[in-house]
# Entry
Amino acid sequence: MPRSKISGITDKFRAVVDEPYEKLKQWKEVNKKKIVGCSPMHFPEELIHAAGMLPVVLQETDETITTGFSYIYPFFCGITRNLIDIGVKGQLGFLDGLIYSDLCVQNRTAASILRQNLPSIYVEFAQLPSSFTKEGVMEDTIKELDRIKANLEKLTGRKIDDKSLKQSILVYNKNRSLLRRLHDLHRADPKLLPYRDMQVIVQSSMLMPKEEHTQLLEELLSEMEGMKPTSVKGSRLFLSGHLCQSPKADILDLIEGVGGVIVDDDLYTGYRHYAVDVEVNGSPIQALAKRHLEKSLPVPTRTDLPIRWEKYLVDRVKASKAQGAVILVVKFCEPHLFYYPFIKEALAKACIPHIMVETEHEVVSLEGVRTRLQAFIEMLR
Ligand code: SF4
# Structure
């Protein structure tokens, strides 16, 4: 039965996501390779891959924050507090390197706290430009990527030449193209997979060797592409927000449990992660810089977006034919909170109903959220 094969493959992805750091520790013991963690969103993992190491994107875990309270303000977002907490407790000690890249004030703070507290690990801060239009921005980006490339070469003792970097870009482009195929399949028939499984598949791509993930993804797609589409019953929703991390599965289940059907998204652990490839012609470092500066989708962690984020969102919601939008805002996420009033106004002007749901790292009762979501879905019918 294809369904059981699909569940079998998604279970393999889930096993990686459920205990990300434990699984990585085990992987390192078996494979005897270095692992470098990246903060979410902006750093091109291809550079680490080309140096023969395993790049992973740090993920928030469910762990209760304890020791970390002494290091970080309680009004910082959940992923920042969580990563600092597990870092100071020694759970990131298996990493050989840690690269933070500029996306918000909290991310900057996390990098300096972890640098102080993990002295045996190479901790880097990638100052990639947040202004995309200022003069010389391409040169600045290439210079910064070249600087980090030289440090990665020192860490691994291996030269990152253009040939190996191009090869890594091809490996990453292939994985992105398969994720886009999965996205298209799910968009056409959202009942193929619960949205929580879509998240697991994308998150696992950030934690597994890309080649292994690609192989499993190819198996999954060959099963899914043979399935008959089902008709969509429920209210079509566009999911937006959670700028740098995956929403918790219970919120996603809640949305689907009250009759919502998530037909598209703009999440980092979703469409934004795999929407755009890196060019394969010319200088590979320049191609990585170009993806960052000219090809990435709008997100509010930049100072001068070529397209306003709220306009981009309205266009995406309309294109998805969603009846409404669910905006998930991480508590204390400054970039998102800064832009939310613009989003609210733009959606209202475009006559797109939306509901804003604030999420927290700490476990909270979801009953209030359930009632609000139920009322929102009723309104859309
Ligand atoms: S973008 Fe938002 S959620 Fe992500 S680290 Fe910054 S403040 Fe936290």
About this structure: The radius of gyration is 20 Å. The longest strand covers residues 235-241.
